[in-house]
Amino acid sequence: MMSVDKHIITELKNAILKSRYQAARLVNRELVLLYFDIGKKISINANKEAWGSKILDQISDALQNELPGLRGFSASNLKKMRVFAEFWGAYLKISSATPNQLENSQEVISSAVPNQLPENFLDIFFSVGFTHHYSIASKCADFKEAYFYLSKVAAEFWDYRRLEKQIAARLYFLQGTLPNNFKHVIPQSDMRSKALQSFKDEYLLDFVNIEDPDFLDERLLENEIVRNIKKFILSIGGDFAFIGNQYRLIVEEQEYFIDLLFFNRKLQCLVAFELKTGKFKPEYLGKMNFYLSALDDITRQPHENPSIGIILCKEKKNKIVEYSFRDFNKAMGVATYKTSKEIPSQFKNALPDAETLKKLL
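The chain above was modelled as a monomer; its predicted structure follows.
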């Protein structure tokens, strides 16, 4: 029996996958346009007629009667479409598509302000699903912030939960704000720019399951991170690969242990994290500088870039961090963390402490 050439199978498979992707992209594009159009009509009429809160329920029921079995047009979804349309209506002009316009987005969508849209904006905008679109439109303040998250979703294939988490963690505002010495110790501008964008000033560790953050010690924090390593990587960035905790280094027959060691694919370098549950102290950088020197000599591969160190602590004063960086030749940064169980300072004295509650009970 004659065997089939594997190259033909590969060509057919690629053709099928390409066609499916194109079809899915066009369907998503049409849905986004439809939801924008519906949201725009609802917004215009709501403002014009001063609709009450129950009108959308009536509209949803009426649509269901006219189109039995219709899904996706509940009152809550209609409200989301309105939010979506009102946010992007300030920046975009979108008209209804005709069949011969399916391949030409420029005929359907344009900038409300000339030359405002980035070159690849339309491809990104129509590649993102409506669930992500609503989250961005309802939580972002302006075009730049929204475009930042749209680009992340499109490029890194964020699911809805990850998008929500990164918006809650204020990734857009914290990108590039990490106190660091990269400018002075990383000579390559491209590498320096990537490093600045790879770390944040503050990380949300909402998976740390503790009753009172004030009694969290460093080993407990480390154990919680390792136990939830996938969530931690989502917090610090998808380009990180976990190598291990308490990573062992031997220098002159003495053992040293790095709390957490990662490899960053974008930076092509080792990244060491040291965990501190209190305030930042200048002496932490001396220890980290030593670790990075040892990593570069013992662990780093010839093709990899010099290692980077991050001190992750509970509190810091940026001026103290700035002075502490002087005269060190290894790339380092100092970030803080917070957990979702922390009580804001203004409310800490509003409730009795655990011991008082026990006595009351």
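The chain has two domains: 6-168, 174-346.
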